Amino acid sequence: LPAFYANTVLLNVSSLSFRLQKLKEMFISKFGSAPKFYVRAPGRVNLIGEHIDYCGYAVLPMAIEQDILIAVEPVKTQVVQLANTNSLYLDFSTGVNNIQIDKTKPQWHNYFLCGLKGIQEHFGLNNPTGMNCLLDGTIPPSSGLSSSSALVCCAGLVTLRANGKTLSKVELAEICTKSEHYIGTEGGGMDQSISFLAEEGTAKLIEFSPLRATDVRLPSGAAFVIANSCVEMNKAATSHYNIRVMECRLATKLLSKSKGLDWKKMLRLHDVQTKLGVSLEEMLTIVEEVLHPEPYSTEEICKCLGISLEELRSQILTPNTQDVSTFKLYQRAKHVYSEAARVLEFKKICNEAPANAIQLLGELMNQSYISCREMYECSCPELDRLVDICLQFGAIGSRLTGAGWGGCTVSMVPTDKLNTFLKNVKKAYYQSDVQRLVLENNSLFATKPGRGALVFVEA
């Protein structure tokens, strides 16, 4: 069987979960007929390895229980009708040919269209199947738990199934990674990869070029707790994320040129290390030697590379970074190389399971957070406060997860301290603020490694 069909679950109507049954009833009420199948794609929490997937380095996420679930009915009309169980998200419909995605307004349906368009273009589908789709999501939006990528992945799998096509999970992940770029986010591939490749009970080391996933067994004496700062951050709606991607790309160019490499062909910091054949520790030394901590102006970058400002803008910068006047290259490169080393060390400790594994892993998470805050500057006051509270009340390690600038923290907490930890963090962070109090129930929870994307079909 094709890989994704191996994850197809047959269901009798009587055994449908309450959520699926409710979704089915709403679908019938909305479209006047029953869905033919359902697709689920999970969100994820990244345990360590922030902002390094798009630089070519391995990351260490796990899928979570929260997900995107879509009920689907293929139809003969070449129209896709999208509806959402959440009334805040308006209905949308479009013809299946010549899909247009508005980068200026990252609305929910545009993420669905990314997955749809990615599959259409991969197979060169001239007359793809129309669909009625009803979506239900339990991932808090703009929380750093990958709700957007889960929707792209879900839509990709929906389109694949509706059109009777097959792909491996790895191929699906790679297509969905590229197709999310349609919305304007220059992401790496972690979110889409873990959404398809996740397995229950294990985190995954996700490596790129080629894409592969390795099981990482987490220590049994600790729980991972997600806490939402309640500050929303949408990667596609702000420039923070894409500026960081560009700063890493520019650092790649300058490091490459300083070492006599063909800098024009070099895009990722990982490429520099590979070409030079040196260790991550040696790359950190090279960063110290070549780059200066002061921000680089566009004029200085042009001088270093021997190109004009017009060439910089047209050949290297993306449309949404062309107006940026200064870039921090030293800090971003230093974070990426040190974070990549922490990921490998985290996996090594999990594999070897020394007696003090929890303490060692916690220290790596704390180092990651400090680097994200100080070198990558992707934290915010609320995340800083939440990390402090989590560490104060018993977390061995705590860090921001996802893009940052809002969203969630992930903390490693000894299992015997979990209940006290949850109680104290609720009181200190959520119950002390009226706005956060409203969101408290869905904002703080322990999580275990969950399953990857699934197709449900009624038997």
Automatic annotation (TrEMBL):
Range of residues in the leader sequence: none
Listed SUPFAM superfamilies: GHMP Kinase, C-terminal domain, Ribosomal protein S5 domain 2-like
Superkingdom, taxonomy of origin: Eukaryota
Subunit architecture: Monomer.
Alphabetic keyword roster: ATP-binding, Kinase, Nucleotide-binding, Transferase
Catalytic class of the enzyme: transferase
UniProt source species: Brachypteracias leptosomus
Molecular function GO labels: ATP binding; galactokinase activity; N-acetylgalactosamine kinase activity
Membership in a protein family: Belongs to the GHMP kinase family. GalK subfamily.
GO CC aspect terms: cytosol
Record-given protein name: N-acetylgalactosamine kinase
Pfam entry (one): GHMP_kinases_C
Catalytically driven reaction(s): N-acetyl-alpha-D-galactosamine + ATP = N-acetyl-alpha-D-galactosamine 1-phosphate + ADP + H(+)
Annotated GHMP kinase N-terminal domain residues: 110-197
Occurrences of domain GHMP kinase C-terminal (ranges): 356-430
Record InterPro entries: Galactokinase, Galactokinase_CS, GalKase_N, GHMP_kinase_C_dom, GHMP_kinase_C_sf, GHMP_kinase_N_dom, GHMP_knse_ATP-bd_CS, Mevalonate/galactokinase
EC number: 2.7.1.157
GO BP, one annotated term: galactose metabolic process
Galactokinase N-terminal domain boundaries: 26-74
Gene that this sequence comes from: Galk2
